[in-house]
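Narrative of activities, Objective 1.

The group set out to show that a structural description can be obtained from nothing but a protein's sequence at a throughput compatible with the screening campaign. Below is one input-output pair from the validation batch, recorded exactly as produced.
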Amino acid sequence: MNKTVALHTLGCKLNFSETSTIGRLLENDGFEKINFDEVADVYVINTCSVTDNADKECRMLVRRIQRKAPTAMVVITGCYAQLKPEEIASIPGVDLVLGAAEKFNIGQHLKEITKGDSAKICSCDIDDVNVFTASHSINDRARVFLKVQDGCDYNCSFCTIPLARGKSRSDSINNVINSVRMIAEQGVKEVVLTGINLGDFTSPPSPLLKERGDAKITSPPAPLLEERGDAKTEAKMSSLMGDFFSLIKELDKVEGIERFRISSIEPNLLSNDIIEFVSNSKRFMPHFHIPLQSGSNKILGLMRRRYKKELYAERVGLIKTLMPHCCIGVDVIVGFPGETDADFKETVEFLTALDISYLHVFTYSERANTFALELKQVVPIPVRHERNKILRNLSYQKMQAFTGRHIGETRKVLFENANKNVYLPNRQGILEGYTDNYIKITTLNKPGLENNIVEWKI
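Output recorded for this entry:
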């Protein structure tokens, strides 16, 4: 009989796409994929390490597996595994730790280990991770997460992602288009474009660069541009290389997918061209998730963010001018070192005035090997939690106001796979879906709704 494998994802949408790809690789190796709450032969946990809570959740899951299936093989991969492999290997029950360069070689590694041996660590120097591996979450949900970019060249003072993911790298536009066409053949209606720094997407080398012998270059160096003596060369090369704007313009032409969404994108990379394009597109949904992190320019500077709050407000203003119905989500960090009561008040007032739809609120937690650890004026933990609560309440108010403005409207809703764990007394399942502008709709599961886009009065 085939061995069984159960997979669990912690963290971002990109992690979901990679977990799904790992699952398909193991199925190709003969494993049968089952639910994580069942007893399996192998458990794979794809970890996040953005906050300390993500680390704690990983350890909690391993302990749960030990109680449920003590003879099962436990594999940990993802950001936590890359950052702290020895720490993970010391957790009782962990058999294999796979770093960033090895997660997609999981099948081969499983053949080489035996339960009961010391935990095997297959990690690497993150500077050696320079290959892009495509992944997507087909068969996991009606909305597919498609990874088009990985890694990050930014060095925000609170963030360990560059240490866990490596330098920014991207798929080619042609490969992305081929992936989308394949996904469309599976009957998928919506594709969510994901990446660690999605707006930094840069399609790999063009034939022009390859002719010069620079096959590994992902963006033309300044001397090369200067040698060509053409004032417009940089713009031409950018177009030839294929930036994020180029990518979405090409995807908008692909038949078979009815909806595209842009996941999180940095405000300094969300150009006016992108906003205007989405406003005129029938396939790209009116929904942006734009990290802010703080409404105080002082704190943004300490965070080493690449914009000020004025630019952020300008982006939101243009979106709402062109698309008043657009949903805008915001990431915010509370309790960053040096954040005074006045700084936090400035953030609250800034967010209150912005025409946004919801917040993802993160409580700052100290991360090893980050510049933020050197900053003084550490915010006490209770104060961090209180600030988190205040912003979560504001998020609730923002979402209520946003959805309230659309009550009575008829909008297109994509109903996703039925939640098999929720039933009414008549055993009829509950179905959930999202409007084009990301308002969540819940209804009874009726024939013809699941995985279909329908006109729906809110």
